[in-house]
Amino acid sequence: MSEFKSAAEAAAAGKYVRTVRSFVKREGRLTKGQQAALSRQWPHKGLQLADGLLAWSDVFANDHPVVLEIGFGMGDSLVKMAQAEQQHNFVGIEVHTPGVGACLLLAEQAGVENLRVFDDDAVEVLKQCVADHSLSRVQIFFPDPWHKKRHHKRRIIQPEFIALLAQKLKVGGVLHLATDWQNYAEHMLAVMSASSDFSNLSSSGDYIPRPENRPLTKFEQRGHRLGHGVWDLQFTRVSQ
User: Fold this and answer.
1) Where does S-adenosyl-L-methionine bind (predicted)?
2) Which helix (H) or strand (E) holds 12?
3) Looking at the predicted structure, is the pLDDT value of residue 126 above 90?
């Protein structure tokens, strides 16, 4: 990618670089506010694959538990959670550069410092940058449902990916999933229930009410008004 190691790094320098990815990269233009936030905040809050295996105590200059969110969208709920849980460090991964810029702008406005972001493929970040047993929580909220049956294989919640997450989570760590597609919720539950690495935290063996620490998004509020359901799942990493 020329002299830049990520799309966000290029954007922070005011450059656009077309990249080849192993997934569909959502296109979008950076607003002036997002561009400015990237320029100001990326040098401090931006992480990239070239950083290699990270020691979170070095990244954050403390030993607080680390929460990883995959696919944070525009970052609204991630920033709210980081602001509310100062005793945790938060790391977000998003492949939509304008979303990264929006997240950094919100973090800057809220004075949030316990947050770092990647503009990279989550699988590669996990494999190259995240040490085994180093995460206390992983959260994946409203991932692309790929609702057509022929596209189900593209869903991020698959046995191989769940095994990778288990490798990165501490024993006792929590994986929190949420979706507004019932079919995907059922798929998530089936995949998670089949994993010997995890135990369901639901007392009924399926879903849980939305935890207070997961902010209600504008998208979700609109869905509630339209009568749409939302399903939350929480599983804890167990020892073998």
Assistant:
1) 69, 94, 121, 144
2) helix 7-12
3) yes
Rounded to whole angstroms, what are the CA distances from 160 to 47, 66, 112, 223? 25, 22, 33, 31
Q: Residue for token digits 């997002």?
A: 34
The reply, when asked if residue 120 is annotated as ligand binding, is no
Q: Is 219 annotated as a binding residue?
A: yes
Q: CA-CA distance, 92 to 36, in Å (whole number)?
A: 19
Domain limits for position 219 = 7-237
- Assess if residue 2 is contained within a domain: no
The reply to whether 1 falls in a domain is no
Phi-psi region of 110 (alpha: psi -120 to 50; beta: other; left: phi over 0): alpha
Encode pLDDT of 143-171 as tens digits. 998 878 888 888 999 999 999 999 999 99
From the list 144, 197, 206, 232, the catalytic residue is: 144
Q: Is 94 annotated as a binding residue?
A: yes
Q: What is the pLDDT of residues 36-70, one digit of tens each?
A: 999 999 999 999 999 999 999 999 999 999 999 99
DSSP-H helix ranges across 13-143: 32-45, 56-60, 76-84, 97-110, 122-129
Q: Is 121 annotated as a binding residue?
A: yes
Tokens of 125: 């970040």
CATH code assigned at 107: 3.40.50.150
pTM here is: 0.87
